[in-house]
Amino acid sequence: DLAGTSSTQPRDQREPAASGASRDQHTPQPSFQHSNERSSLAYVHQETDMMEELLKQKGDNSTLSAILGCIYGQCLGDAYGLATEFESKESVARMYPRQTAIPFPNYVRTANSSNWRKGDWSDDSDQMILIMETLIEKHSADELTFARKLSKWIRQGFPDLGDKGGTGLGHNVRLVSLHNDFLLDPHKASREVWESTNKQVAPNGAVMRCSVLGIYEYQETDRVIENTAKIAKVTHFDPRCVASCVAVNLCIAYILQKKFDVTTVDGVEALINAVKEKTLESVQMPGGHIQEFKFYT
């Protein structure tokens, strides 16, 4: 519990991510509220989707399509993966003995997925959305703004979606967010929590949310790396965590830059090798961690 809310509070009111329907088909939806001010991006009942209009314009929309695919893919992949998160291969086989694909959103509920409504995405995408909000509000990967938004999300989730708290909050993020200096200097708070574990704890709570930073300023590789590291370190100071985020976002940026032909095996291998090289050049890690990074990439 944090400030009287539970990090495992089910999202009883949220609609499945796979559903394209409005939460209320009969009444206008409220405008999105951002920083206590009415946003210029407001959707009401039956309003035309702005992205759809952009995609109808003449010209090459492949980059825009790829960007949208990355964002929607994050949320949909997250929602689908929630069906078997933390389950073993044997457990999944028992739940789906005669099926080659897991039915979505009508999958078998598990102890973990029961914390969300069927079809919902998890804290992975919630926190990605917080990063998106930070970029929109500050026009930069501002770690103080992200820390403030994360702290607010922990307390109340997204109230407009019926949340009562930040569902799925990881132990490491919780510890860092409770640090006295978190809202003043999140990198200091994150570093001190990491150091208190003898610099051993390196969970995956930063890489799960980072993808949108591979899109932002994707033309400038060094900026992608800088932005990614700044946001990762808000809660995950271990260089292995930073390296994993940088590697993911370099993949995204390079694909958007069209540097490699990822429709071929050779092109994908070239992409991976370039990402390895650039990540190791950019993130300082002990020798053992370098070998581990090379093995897993």
Automatic annotation (TrEMBL):
Extent of Polar residues compositional bias: 1-10
Binding residues annotated for Mg(2+), in chain numbering: 122-124
Region: Disordered, residue numbers: 1-38
GO terms assigned for molecular function: metal ion binding
Entry keywords, A to Z: Magnesium, Metal-binding
Keyword Magnesium part of the UniProt annotation: yes
Signal peptide: none
Co-factor(s): Mg(2+)
Cofactor: record remark: Binds 2 magnesium ions per subunit.
Keyword match Magnesium: yes
SUPFAM superfamilies the record matches: ADP-ribosylglycohydrolase (SSF101478)
Protein name, entry field: ADP-ribosylglycohydrolase
Organism, as annotated: Didymodactylos carnosus
